[in-house]
Amino acid sequence: SSGINAEYGVIGNIFVSLISYRDTTISFAEDTENEIITCFVGLVYKLTEKEFLPLLVQLLEWSDGSLERSISFYNLSSQLSDKLQGLFLLFGGSIYVNLVEKLKRCKPQEQSQEYESKKMK
Predict the structure, then answer these.
(1) Cα–Cα distance between 37 and 32 in angstroms, integer?
(2) 3-state class of 65 per DSSP?
(3) What is the mean pLDDT of residues 2-13?
(4) pLDDT digit string (tens) for 48-107?
(5) Which of 5, 30, 68, 92 lies in disulfide reach of 23, CB 3.0 to 4.6 Å?
(6) How far is CA 121 from the centre of its chain?
(7) Closest Cα partner for 56 from 22, 105, 97?
(8) How far apart are CA 120 and CA 77, in angstroms?
(9) 81-106 burial string, b = 16+ CB within 10 Å, else e?
(10) How far apart are CA 33 and CA 19, in angstroms?
């Protein structure tokens, strides 16, 4: 079992390298990223929930590195949700919490204080 988990760790590292394409190239091509994601979705179909969750967490943590990584991760999440449909809801909570935290960090402090003062009235 630990050998299998190690293999998925290697696969996760390979996929992270591939999906980093947007983050590491000047001439980004959305078609290339979509093909990489299509391959990953094909892999996900073969995984159990216990095997998939660590890969998803690894990608979620990776996505915190930059705006470009976040865009790639949410593109991946969108395509996974389209393909997995209801099954994706099992994993959506972690993604939702991450998204809310990222949006909070993007919210200008001035607007945040203005909103809070209006809410109090």
Answers:
(1) 9
(2) coil
(3) 67
(4) 888 888 888 888 888 887 888 888 888 888 888 888 777 776 777 777 777 777 777 776
(5) 68
(6) 38
(7) 97
(8) 36
(9) beebeeebeebeeebeebbeeeeeee
(10) 7
- What are the tokens at 98? 């991450």
| Residue 34 vs residues 18, 38, 75, 99: alpha-carbon distances, Å | 11, 6, 8, 21
**Distance (Å, whole) CA 56 – CA 94:** 9
Give the span between the Cα atoms of 80 and 60, in whole angstroms: 13
- Rounded alpha-carbon distances, angstroms, from residue 38 to 19, 80, 82, 93, 106: 11, 9, 12, 23, 30
Which residue do the tokens 């990953």 mark? Answer: 40
Q: Which of 91, 119, 121, 3 has its CA nearest to residue 11?
A: 3
**Token pair listed for 46:** 């073969």
